[in-house]
Design brief:
InterPro entries: SsuA/THI5. It contains 15 helices and 9 strands. The protein has about 375 residues and is of the alpha/beta class. The chain has an 8-stranded mixed β-sheet with strand order 3-2-4-9-5-8-6-7, with helices on both faces. Strand 6, helix 6 and strand 7 form a beta-alpha-beta unit. The radius of gyration is 21 Å and the shape is globular.
């Protein structure tokens, strides 16, 4: 995912946001009311300089209990919250409890109001905002790297061996489906001519098992699956990695009712992420997550350095605008995002900038880059 840059003057026009949100420059949260409607961007107190960003979180305005949705049961998508709870980071910013609900698609309950925030695919959230919920906003990147990996079963050692075989990238129309097709083309294999592409549900763990059991001959899998697949007699045939702001946090009702809470949530989880991406803390993080009953076999633990690298599990929650521009452009081409979508219109970065400033981190994206 990649991006183009625009002048700071464009921020006031393109970063539209729902509700009367707290201004960057002051500590006031008085406009964050549930009754507020979409705000005229000309009235928005958006930051023009870093000095305008208020890094002080008023805990008296923070909601004490939150319910958030995550689409993946793998520990990587839960450990920011569990570590923040374990180490007291949420309480530091005024939040007492956070309940995580694992839901295959957390956007409907987020839009319906039963979730406060959702961790989900960036493009899907932006597309949902464009198509329906005008108050939904993408807030911060969670995973900023993408590994496009084709795992195959026994006896497949080259692109030529794939001819006539069955491959899945997950559900038709998903990003995984699109990028596995591109990976095949990049390696001289034409989808739907040289191989049979099938649609399957579930996450990457289910696709791995489908390869191991022979249900399919190859599938889009994750880096952590390499050792497991090799022990079963398979292998990674093709792979590529790139910077892509593929998933992150979004909010709608909470952003209108209590923008201070959104900032507090991001500050606590980013503080946890700073701890997690410090490789010296690997064993403590894994101990916390195993105590929470997450299944982390040795093969998955061995992938910790790759999956929790600061550029992959983005340590500051930010992104390069050019990467986002490229990503959303690709998704428009894949028809998963409506034609003409301007991602800036459905992205609201003030809570992220405030959280970064609260933690003493540089603002990312930089104001000048937006």
């Amino acid at each position: 995912m990649n991006r183009l840059t625009r002048s700071i003057g464009a921020v006031g026009v393109s970063l539209l946001f729902a509700g009367s949100l707290a201004g960057c420059g002051g500590s006031s949260d008085s406009a964050g009311t549930a009754s507020a409607g979409p705000m005229d961007a000309s009235k928005a107190n958006l930051p023009k300089t870093e000095a305008d960003v208020n890094g002080t979180i008023d805990k008296s305005k923070v909601k004490k209990s939150l319910v958030v949705g995550v689409d993946n049961p793998y520990y990587l998508f839960h450990h920011d919250i569990e570590v923040a709870l374990s180490k007291g980071y949420f309480k530091e910013f005024g939040i007492d409890t956070v309940e995580i609900k694992t839901i295959e698609d957390p956007l409907p309950p987020l839009i319906g109001g039963s979730l406060d925030l959702a961790l989900y695919d960036t493009d899907t959230a932006i597309a949902a905002a464009r198509k329906g919920d005008q108050n939904l906003r993408f807030l911060s990147v969670y995973l900023g790297g993408e590994a496009n990996v084709l795992g195959v079963g026994k006896g497949i050692n080259s692109g030529a061996d794939l001819r006539g075989k069955t491959i899945t990238g997950g559900q038709f129309g998903s990003r995984n489906d699109a990028i596995i097709r591109q990976l095949l083309r990049d390696n001289g294999v034409e989808p739907d001519r040289d191989v049979k592409i099938v649609s399957t549900g579930g996450q990457s763990n289910e696709r791995l098992q489908a390869v191991i059991t022979g249900t399919v001959d190859g599938a889009s899998i994750q880096l952590r699956h390499r050792t497991v697949l090799e022990k079963a007699g398979g292998k990674v045939l093709f792979e590529e990695t790139r910077e892509v702001p593929q998933s992150g946090w979004s909010a709608t009702k909470l952003l209108q009712e209590s923008p201070e809470t959104v900032t507090a949530f991001l500050a606590a989880t980013l503080k946890a992420r700073q701890f997690i991406t410090d490789q010296a803390n690997k064993e403590e993080v894994l101990t916390i997550m195993r105590a929470k009953k997450f299944d982390i076999p040795t093969e998955y633990a061995d992938a910790y350095a790759a999956e929790n690298a600061p550029a992959y599990h983005v340590s500051d929650g930010g992104f390069k605008p050019a990467d986002m521009e490229k990503f959303i452009g690709d998704q428009i081409a894949y028809k998963t995002v409506p034609e003409g979508t301007d991602w800036r219109q459905y992205t609201y970065l003030l809570p992220l900038w405030r959280a970064q400033k609260a933690l003493g981190l540089p603002l990312n994206p930089a104001l000048a880059d937006m």
